TrEMBL record:
It comes from Pitta sordida. It comes from the Eukaryota. The lineage of its organism: Eukaryota, Metazoa, Chordata, Craniata, Vertebrata. PANTHER family: 40S RIBOSOMAL PROTEIN S3A. Keywords: Cytoplasm, Hydrolase. One of its GO terms (molecular function) is cysteine-type deubiquitinase activity. This is CYLD hydrolase.
Length: 225
């Protein structure tokens, strides 16, 4: 018998289920990078639910079952995932990956996403980026940028646009899912004390060869600054 599945939390239901003490994913033994990634990917959106159900040719059923039944469904049903469930997933990732420290060390979220999406679940890359003549595929985009004095409390839209501009990047096509990793924060230094979430992201100016309007006359632009 297939276990019961729960849809992502929306609006009032999200507030009711996820707000308060003992909510979210319980942290343990440097799991914060994975806890935050899993919460962001599955608590309130279904865009990656194919990871939980589709019979991918290279899919590892055991890891898929743990992710679906021990983490995502409890999170959507009760708003809480115990640390032991995440550790169960980390143990499986340690067995499947090339790294032996998934159970005790802090990792980069991109390393976790690449392992679980590419090597374990066999998902095609979500993003196609182009810089100059070089095109690359990836699963998420990490914001890299220098400190800018005019950005005190930026929103995600501003950070993505400036990061793409400074790195001379364009999206080759509209992504089905756009996973964005915020600027790195260390223990001694934080680039921004706060970042305002952008509830919608306008990627018009980030798309390669996309028609854009002139900022002066409103007609289709022929030049880009």
């Amino acid at each position: 018998e297939a276990p019961e599945s729960f849809p992502p939390l929306r609006k009032e239901a999200a507030v009711r289920v996820l707000r308060g003490r003992m909510k979210g994913i319980q942290g343990h033994c440097n799991s914060c990078y994975m806890d935050a990634a899993l919460f962001s990917l599955f608590s309130c959106t279904s865009v990656l639910d194919s990871m939980l159900f589709m019979p991918f040719p290279l899919c590892d059923r055991n890891v898929q079952g743990i992710l679906r039944d021990e983490i995502v469904n409890p999170l959507r049903r009760t708003g809480f995932v115990r640390a032991g469930s995440v550790m169960h997933l980390r143990e499986q990732l340690t067995d499947k990956g090339q790294c032996s420290s998934f159970t005790n060390a802090e990792k980069d979220p991109e390393e976790f996403l690449n392992l679980i999406m590419q090597q374990i679940l066999g998902i095609e890359p979500l993003l196609k980026l182009q810089s100059g003549d070089q095109e690359q595929d990836c699963y998420c985009y990490q914001i890299f940028m220098d400190k800018q004095e005019d950005l005190v409390v930026p929103d995600v839209q501003q950070l993505v646009e400036r990061s793409f501009l400074s790195s001379d990047l364009k999206l080759v096509e509209i992504p089905s899912c756009f996973i964005i990793q915020m600027p790195r924060f260390g223990k001694e230094y934080k680039m921004f004390s706060k970042i305002i979430p952008s509830l919608e992201l306008d990627i018009t100016d980030l798309l390669l060869d996309s028609p854009r309007e002139c900022c002066l006359c409103g007609e289709v632009a022929t030049l880009e600054c």
